[in-house]
Amino acid sequence: MIGYQQADSQAVESLVRLVSPMLHRFLASPGSLAGDNDDLLQECWVRVHRARHTYRATEPVLPWLFAIARHTKLDGFRRHKRRNSREVLYGEVPEPRLRPRRDTAPEANGRLQALLNALPDSQREVVVMLKVTGMSLEEVARATSSTVGSVKQKAHRAYEKLRRLLSEETS
Amino acid sequence: MNHRPGDDGQFDRLWEEAGHSDAPESLVAAISSRLCSGLRAVAPAPSPANMAVRLFLLIVLVTLAVTSLMGLSGAVRMTTLQRLLVSIALASGAALLALSLSWQMIPGSLQRFSPVAALALTLAGFLAAVALLFPLRHSADDLASGLECTRGGVAIAFPAAFLIWLLVRRGASQAYPLVGATIGGASGLVSVAVLQFHCEKQEMVHLSLWHGCVVILCGLTGFAAGTAFREWRLRTAR
Question: ipTM above 0.95?
Answer without folding.
Answer: no
